[in-house]
From TrEMBL:
Residues 49-97 form the RNA polymerase sigma factor 70 region 4 type domain. The lineage of its organism: Bacteria, Pseudomonadati, Pseudomonadota, Alphaproteobacteria, Sphingomonadales. It comes from Sphingomonas plantiphila. Residues 11-20 have a biased composition (Basic and acidic residues). This is Sigma factor-like helix-turn-helix DNA-binding protein. It comes from the Bacteria. Residues 1-24 are annotated as: Disordered. It holds the Pfam family Sigma70_r4_2. InterPro entries: RNA_pol_sigma70_r4_t2 (IPR013249), RNA_pol_sigma_r3/r4-like (IPR013324), WH-like_DNA-bd_sf (IPR036388).
Length: 127
């Protein structure tokens, strides 16, 4: 729940304001998780290294969507038109890329969404 709020806050929070607050590299991507500032003790070079590793682990389409939004400044609709996906699918890919990069900054390898859901179902079933 908190990560979703962080993703929405990151998407809606203008980049210039994040930079004015001195948040560094990670604040531009995922400023808050669970109420605490992420990676507050990591130097920027280590954060960049973790981000690069997280980007390399992403599927190609998801990585391209993330980079198109963050670096090229394209809208969801523009990306949807270029890729042939719906706007909702572009939003989903972007949200999942943000979650994966938040996990990469935190030093966690995130399991695919279907595995996390399956684990929850199995845990409930075993109770």
């Amino acid at each position: 729940m908190a990560c979703g709020a962080a993703r929405r806050r990151t998407r809606d929070f203008p980049r210039g304001e994040r930079r004015q607050q001195g948040g560094g590299v990670s604040a531009c991507l995922c400023p808050v998780r669970g109420g605490a500032v992420m990676s507050e003790n990591l130097p920027d070079p280590e954060i960049i290294e973790r981000l690069e590793a997280g980007l390399e682990r992403m599927p190609k389409l998801r990585r391209e969507i993330f980079l198109a939004i963050r670096l090229d400044g394209l809208s969801y609709a523009e990306i949807a038109e270029r890729t042939g996906l719906s706007v909702e699918h572009v939003e989903r890919h972007f949200a999942e890329s943000m979650s994966a990069l938040c996990d990469a900054i935190d030093g966690r390898n995130s399991a695919p969404r279907w595995k996390r859901i399956l684990r929850r179902v199995v845990e409930r079933w075993r109770r």
